[in-house]
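Handout, section B. The chain below has 85 residues.
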Amino acid sequence: MTINKSKEENVDIKPDKYIIININKNDLTQNLEAIKSFLQQSRGEYFVYFQMGTDKMKTNFQVDYSDEFEIGLKNIVANVSLEVK
């Protein structure tokens, strides 16, 4: 998995369908392997970004969004929110 971290506050989000995962940096670091595995199992058409405060990271993941996806992610990291566009 590649995560492209941008120091810019606003990474251009161009895809028609994307999910921004708002997550605490420590939560991401501590649960990175479990999150990566979950995202790999949830392949679909929504591009995935991580938002940690003012830092936004674009990933190479594309996932299938559903209520089950959100529940599964929150089972890994309880304190996470999603913006789905």
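Note. The first strand starts at residue 3 and ends at 6. Compare this with the example in section A.
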